[in-house]
């Protein structure tokens, strides 16, 4: 599913003549049957994007993903037996709107807003930009004394740390703080990890009908030469996590083997998923949540969680000074870390930060490894500082990439 805020790749040629990042190009030769499949897949993706941009159908989609939790507002806000907001906070939040700035995908945030309103009756006003662009806006607004956000979510630990240093993020403690710290979920002084992004594998099941890929090693099978899709490591933190996972689990040579597959290299996860849905590539390493959203929309995709596990990185969230003055923002922060909020994140294809819950399948179909599983490979903030530059250089060498 294409996020309208993602950039669309343009053709780039490497030093060896390989063409990359041309997600709109369609192969010249197709069989009649395959052309029909691709036309249907493209229509599904486009129609879903239009729906997502208008916000239509999100209430129903959220309910289909996971039924709303049991809510009791007789003495504050209690959801599934957990106190999310005491009576004073709950009453003060009525009629208020949460202003959320987010680097997370728009589709995911629209669904989250729909679920939050179902369980609280409160609205979210979303500003969605890629994390690097979001950082520019937030710091500019902060410097001018006109920050519009109550809460911000970013995908890069360096940005979260800068927000903290520049006073964008201020201390706020949810009712679950002690539990979150005991579980080592990633609580810092002024921000926390609300859930994890995951990278796994997927394929177009209208093209690959037999002998489907099941393991990471299948990506380097010669039969997928010219049919493999990858996203450039320079795209962001989630791709740094994937590169490090592949290097540490499968070896640096695994990157080199992928590079010899003449892969299509994309500059965003959304354009890669679109190309996979259209059949321009047939197999890919990919952002699980993005691909899962496209599959839900009807794209001919099947996701794979290999035995050797998945890569993971943090989604970091913090409260601003504005948020401290907005009771609805405090309710949202608390709700996000409640079992209900965490379960809904899992239903969308993320991995919850909390580990004291029953596992929730994405869409009732896929069970991702939980944060305390040996199959869950987290690229921590410390790992980022230690390995990101080295891994990026190795990745560029393996894929002969100059972007």
From TrEMBL:
SUPFAM superfamilies assigned: Periplasmic binding protein-like II
Region entry Disordered, spans: 1-26
Polar residues biased stretches: 7-17
Keyword entries, A-Z: Signal
Protein name in UniProt: Extracellular solute-binding protein
Pfam families assigned: SBP_bac_8
Source species: Rhodococcoides corynebacterioides
InterPro entries assigned: SBP
